[in-house]
Design a protein that fits this description.
Helix 3 links the parallel strand 7 and strand 8. The protein has 2 domains: 166 residues, Aspartate Aminotransferase, domain 1 (Alpha-Beta Complex); 207 residues, Rossmann fold (3-Layer(aba) Sandwich). Helices cover 23% and strands 11% of the residues. It contains 10 helices and 12 strands. Helix 3 packs across helix 4. The protein starts with 75 loop residues before the first helix and ends in an 8-residue tail after the last helix. It has 432 residues and is an alpha/beta fold. The longest helix is centred in the C-terminal third of the chain and has 19 residues.
């Protein structure tokens, strides 16, 4: 158990050395990050588990090492003894895989008594649209009750934990403060602490875990898309964040969670981990995962970020923008009612350029948002309240309104990022 145990001594000696990425020489960007200008680009064929098909020849060695990583769920010998003879609840979704088999099936095959499944945003099968409410139901394959933790029931009710001894958490995250799987984990930790239920995290790598960037959340902007005083890109796994949430006293009313984490093997914070499956409907490939930290802010503006196309989070556009690239958002499986539905949008295609290495180097890049803000000339009407909730502070919006460029704004939060890195050190389970 982690409870009352120094985190830096957690499960010492269990981690294997991972492949590391040397410093890379990124190509010069064709975009001026003070003006925000960027030319249109071309289509990419990036898919999960494969190397990106781009013309850029990187100096980065072949370091994703995804095949060398053993996720927490893959170490059944370590956590099955913790579940033996106990009533188990699972907080998981379609990403909870042990090889090609879902964790639910893996545990049932080994005689684990699963009493209830809890599902986050997008549902247990990962098919629901962003923000779409998913009703509770009984899983057709297993007959196990599935309780939705999205919509009105984000926090588990005491009766939903009745008879459960331990909650197993296994969800693939992408390393962003506003990705709501983190918030679902927080609420479940609180519920477990309140009801005397153990909480077991089967950890998974963070595909954006090799850098930290973005402003720290101001508590006044706390919401389900941002609950903790951490940067937009926090560089931590959900197992590490669970330790931090408990250790920093972020659970309400001073609650402490009976927490155990099964770390990954073969992973460090220098690893480039490629996801084996899409974590949610609108992050269909690694390109979208890498651009997500910068493009998600368009959710708080009138600009489309490609929902309702085959390339969400890999392009942006608006009917009044300039650009040779265009697209028309349509209703589809991942976006039933996308912003600017059926409207011809002009903008920028990011499917092949800039290179992945350049995206990593830039980190949280406000140049895309600033470019659109200046082109549309809407002033304050460009921003909705969601923008501040996503970015976590109001000074970014104010600086954009005052004419600041991306690099100047990034400099504003640089010292906060360095302080956060020091705060998180006791909770890191993997080598930096």
């Amino acid at each position: 158990m982690l409870h009352n145990t120094p985190y830096k001594y957690l499960l010492c000696g269990l981690l294997l050395a991972a492949c590391t990425a040397d410093a890379f020489a990124a190509p010069k960007s064709s975009r001026d990050h003070e003006t925000g200008e960027y030319p249109g680009t071309r289509r990419s064929s990036v898919t999960f588990g494969e190397e990106p098909a781009t013309s850029f020849k990187s100096n980065v060695p072949a370091t994703p090492c995804s095949s060398d990583v053993i996720v927490g769920a893959g170490q059944t010998e370590r956590y099955l003894p913790l579940l033996a003879g106990r009533n188990v609840g699972l907080l998981t979704n379609h990403t909870g895989l042990v090889g090609h088999t879902h964790l639910v099936d893996t545990l049932l095959a080994r005689g684990v008594a699963i009493r209830r499944i809890f599902a986050p945003e997008h549902g247990f099968r990962g098919e629901a649209d962003a923000g779409e409410s998913v009703a509770s139901y009984r899983d057709q394959k297993t007959g196990i009750e599935v309780v939705s933790l999205y919509g009105a029931n984000k926090r588990p009710k005491p009766e939903q934990l009745n008879g459960i001894d331990v909650i197993v958490f296994d969800i693939q995250d992408v390393g962003l403060r506003f990705y709501t799987y983190l918030s679902s984990m927080h609420y479940m930790m609180e519920a477990c602490a309140e009801n005397g239920v153990d909480f077991l995290v089967l950890d998974r790598p963070n595909p954006n875990g090799f850098y930290v960037d973005g402003p720290i959340l101001d508590p006044k902007n706390r919401s389900f898309v941002g609950m903790h005083p951490i940067p937009v890109v926090h560089g931590m796994t959900l197992g590490e964040l669970a330790c931090m949430i408990d250790g920093e006293g972020w659970l309400r009313d001073g609650l402490r969670c009976k927490l155990t984490v099964i770390p990954c093997r073969g992973y460090t914070h220098r690893s480039r981990y490629r996801l084996p499956t899409a974590p949610s409907p609108n992050l269909p490939n690694m390109r979208a995962v890498y651009l997500y930290p910068s493009l998600c802010f368009f959710e708080g503006t009138p600009v489309s970020l490609g929902r309702g196309t085959d390339f969400p989070f890999q392009a942006y556009g608006h009917p009044e923008l300039q650009g040779d690239f265009s697209f028309t958002p349509r209703s589809n499986a991942g976006a039933k009612n996308p912003p600017l539905k059926d409207k011809l949008c002009h903008g920028v295609d990011l499917r092949t350029a800039p290179s992945d290495e350049r995206i990593w180097e830039r980190g949280v890049d406000l140049g895309y948002v600033i470019d659109c803000y200046r082109q549309l000339n809407l002033g304050e009407k460009f921003f909705t309240p969601m923008f501040d909730r996503l970015i976590g502070t109001d000074y970014v919006r104010q600086m954009i309104l005052q004419g600041a460029g991306a690099d100047r704004i990034k400099a504003r939060w640089a010292d906060d990022v360095e302080r956060f890195k020091q705060t998180r050190k006791p909770y890191l389970l993997y080598e930096e």
